[in-house]
């Protein structure tokens, strides 16, 4: 499996032809984020819009994928429909190992299929098949049909699909990966929809020889023991990320009701991690190659006929969707939250973007900026029924209002007003109202993810307002995370995969050069990613922070507007310094 | 002699650690397929998982089907594969009613050796090594 080059499958939907390409650069790009940037450099059209047929959709895995536990993520890279700039989205599930066992480090899809299609590939097959009959189908039903269309390989294949949101061109359309994981942010679903790709099935039907000797086996056992026999991953294994809900509410850092509050001690007990586990948790799931099993699957049960006729559905929950489809909408019942997440899933909407957008719409309706004529339904904080209907309308772009809102909350706010209370930090906010550094970092983050840097964590530990120190923290923190996303490790495993451990893992597989250069490579890939972002139109000065964020209460007290602005100014300078020649 | 059993598959989270461990430790491979135990889902992740493996038959169909005597009965249940005698015809794969044996693209045969190394890599204790014996009246096995 140790190759000194990347093996990448390039599929041209215009011609229906595919090529297996070899790329040099393993020792510089590593894989994942670095490989994606390398591939976008070659196939991307920086000066053309995201919707240009030539723009690539890229998947990339890393040198340790499948060989060590929790190396279970895949990077998707594309020019985003949300802001027309280069970006990444990350997902777990089976995809990473399926791609590994199909024999590829990366997949590049260019062009546009003549009609709605599915792409199937494995180590010995590539097919593009018409799938017009899937048009308009929700993500669940699509998954079921794709499993029937492509029989065999159950358990050893990964199925990506989009829902109506991706077909109708919404910038907040996600890609569903293996039912419970997602390429959520920045519109990957619409990138596939624009290419007329409803689904991708990747079958991991091959294998690789491992190094001779026992060194690899011993190191694997060491890492596996750390993952399973210590408490390092207990948080993710137990309540899962939903554990954060109570913690952040206690800290006055949990957004409620479109960020009008940051704590609601009475209501949080209805939707915190303990309540979700006690009342709704059906079972747990795992990404392939990860024994932690952080996927928490709850259920919604509905009575559809008075004669005690019920159905139920399984819905995976996590901290972020609970925040966006729960506390942000003022909900205190876990089943109601799952019901809204279920609608988002079916539509193929990013649950975070969708929930935050509906929170803004609620306040816009309260203030009379929009009416029920636009929203189609009364939206009131705490009223789940209205939000379920609204999620469906948002996901299908049911009218002009929802079509615009689906392009991003700020786009709707520009048309209807209400920009001040749009909770957008580059993209609809993540659920961490921890303070100034997080707001600055997310607004300027590469993926607009709370995991781009540890700003959310810094806020929780540092009451002092030292701009130099805080910005230096962001700058020092990012390359290590970029290293992990180049491997591509689950970021929950960052306490296990220290730089030293990564070097040992690479070394034992024969990647000695990579192992010896990790700090430098993290910095290089960080800069490469940002250069691509700037080259595709990123102007950090254009990213503004709505006024709502300046009025937030945290455990430290009110947000300090001057400190927030200084952080942003300095961080922008630092980012520019990394992409511009001296 | 013990054989591999999977009495608690309702606990399975689909991490494939067992299968990957078999491939890694027994066959020196990185693979989902080249292993004596393979995890499948029945209709997607919503319906749970099952383990495809050798059930440790006392009177295995695969042994009867093997034309070269490469597969022999293992004392206590299951089979042993003598690779030097195997001509990779795949008759054993066809004969096994539970897909317990697989053949890779190079023709190599993979079947559970009942070694139990996978058991240590199941984080939810779905798998167990147990003494093979006939089912007693009133006994229920998973």
Automatic annotation (TrEMBL), chain A:
Residues 5-206 form the Aldehyde ferredoxin oxidoreductase N-terminal domain. Keywords: 4Fe-4S, Iron, Iron-sulfur, Metal-binding, Oxidoreductase. Its cofactor is [4Fe-4S] cluster; tungstopterin. It holds the Pfam family AFOR_C. InterPro entries: Ald_Fedxn_OxRdtase_dom2, Ald_Fedxn_OxRdtase_dom3, Ald_Fedxn_OxRdtase_N, Ald_Fedxn_OxRdtase_N_sf, OxRdtase_Ald_Fedxn_C, Tungsten_al_ferr_oxy-like_C, W-dependent_AOR. It comes from the Bacteria. One of its GO terms (molecular function) is 4 iron, 4 sulfur cluster binding. This is Aldehyde ferredoxin oxidoreductase. Belongs to the AOR/FOR family.
UniProtKB/TrEMBL annotation, chain B:
Residues 45-76, 77-106, 112-132 form the 4Fe-4S ferredoxin-type domain. Pfam families: Fer4_4 (PF12800), Fer4_9 (PF13187). InterPro entries: 4Fe4S_Fe-S-bd, 4Fe4S_Fe_S_CS, RnfB_subfamily. Signal peptide: none annotated. GO terms for molecular function: 4 iron, 4 sulfur cluster binding; metal ion binding. PROSITE patterns: 4FE4S_FER_1, 4FE4S_FER_2. It comes from the Bacteria. Keywords: 4Fe-4S, Iron, Iron-sulfur, Metal-binding. Transmembrane segments: none annotated. This is (Fe-S)-binding protein.
């Amino acid at each position: 499996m140790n190759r000194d080059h990347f093996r990448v499958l390039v599929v041209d939907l215009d011609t229906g032809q595919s090529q297996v390409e070899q790329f040099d650069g393993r020792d510089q790009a590593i894989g994942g984020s670095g490989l994606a940037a390398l591939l976008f450099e070659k196939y991307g059209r920086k000066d053309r819009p995201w919707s240009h047929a030539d723009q690539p959709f890229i998947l990339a895995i890393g040198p340790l994928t499948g060989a060590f536990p929790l190396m279970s993520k895949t990077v998707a890279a594309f020019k985003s429909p949300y802001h027309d700039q280069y970006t990444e989205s990350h997902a777990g599930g089976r995809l990473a190992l399926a791609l590994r066992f199909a024999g590829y480090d990366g997949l590049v899809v260019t062009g546009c299929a003549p009609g709605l299609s599915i792409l199937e590939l494995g180590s010995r097959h590539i097919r593009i098949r018409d799938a017009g009959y899937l048009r308009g189908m929700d993500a669940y039903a699509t998954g079921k049909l794709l499993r029937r269309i492509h029989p065999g390989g159950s358990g050893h294949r990964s199925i990506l699909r989009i829902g109506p949101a991706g077909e109708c061109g919404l910038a907040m359309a996600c890609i569903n990966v293996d039912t419970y994981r997602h390429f959520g942010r920045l519109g990957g679903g619409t990138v596939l929809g624009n290419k007329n790709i409803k689904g991708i099935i990747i079958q991991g039907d091959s294998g690789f020889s491992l190094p001779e000797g026992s060194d690899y086996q011993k190191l694997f056992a060491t890492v596996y023991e750390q993952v399973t026999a210590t408490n390092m991953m207990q948080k993710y294994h137990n309540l899962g990320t939903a554990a954060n809900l109570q913690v952040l509410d206690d800290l006055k850092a949990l957004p409620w009701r479109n960020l009008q509050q940051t704590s609601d001690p009475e209501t949080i007990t209805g939707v915190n991690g303990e309540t979700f586990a006690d009342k709704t948790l059906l079972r747990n799931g795992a990404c392939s190659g990860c024994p932690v099993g952080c996927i928490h699957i709850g259920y919604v049960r509905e009575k559809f006929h008075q004669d005690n006729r019920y159905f139920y559905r399984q819905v995976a929950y996590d901290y972020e969707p609970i925040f966006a489809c729960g506390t942000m909408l003022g909900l205190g019942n876990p089943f109601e939250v799952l019901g809204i997440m279920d609608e988002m899933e079916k539509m193929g909407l990013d649950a975070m973007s969708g929930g935050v957008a509906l929170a803004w719409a609620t306040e816009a309706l309260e203030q009379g900026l929009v009416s029920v004529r636009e929203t189609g339904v009364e939206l009131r904080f705490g009223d789940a029924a209205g939000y379920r209907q609204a999620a469906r309308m948002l996901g299908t772009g049911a009218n002009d209002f929802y079509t615009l809102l689906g392009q991003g909350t700020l786009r709707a706010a520009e048309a209807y007003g209400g920009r001040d209370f749009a909770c957008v930090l580059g993209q609809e906010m993540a659920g961490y109202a921890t303070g100034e550094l997080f707001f600055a970092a997310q607004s300027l983050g590469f993926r607009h993810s709370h995991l781009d840097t540890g700003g959310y964590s810094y806020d929780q530990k540092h009451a002092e307002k030292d701009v130099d120190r805080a910005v230096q923290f962001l700058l020092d923190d990012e390359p290590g995370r970029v290293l992990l996303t180049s491997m591509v490790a689950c970021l929950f495993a960052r306490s296990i995969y220290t730089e030293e451990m990564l070097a040992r893992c690479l070394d034992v597989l024969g990647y000695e050069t990579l192992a010896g250069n990790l700090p430098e490579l993290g910095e290089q890939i960080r800069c490469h990613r940002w250069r691509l972002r700037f080259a595709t139109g990123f102007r950090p000065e254009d990213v503004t922070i709505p006024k709502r964020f300046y009025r937030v209460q945290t455990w430290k007290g009110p947000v300090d507007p001057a400190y927030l602005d200084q952080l942003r100014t300095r961080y922008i300078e630092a980012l520019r310094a990394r992409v511009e020649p001296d | 002699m013990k054989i591999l059993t999977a009495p608690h598959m309702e606990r399975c989270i689909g991490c494939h650690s067992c299968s990957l461990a078999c491939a890694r430790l027994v066959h020196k491979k990185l693979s989902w397929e080249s292993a004596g135990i393979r995890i499948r889902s029945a209709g997607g992740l919503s319906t749970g998982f099952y383990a495809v493996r050798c059930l440790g038959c006392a009177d295995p169909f695969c042994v009867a089907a093997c034309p070269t005597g490469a597969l022999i009965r293992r004392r206590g249940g299951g089979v042993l594969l003598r690779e030097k005698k195997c001509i990779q015809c795949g008759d054993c794969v066809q004969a096994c009613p539970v897909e317990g044996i697989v053949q890779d693209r190079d023709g190599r045969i993979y079947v559970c050796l009942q070694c139990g190394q996978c058991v240590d890599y199941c984080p939810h204790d779905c798998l167990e090594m147990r003494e093979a014996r006939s089912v007693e009246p009133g006994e229920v096995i998973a």
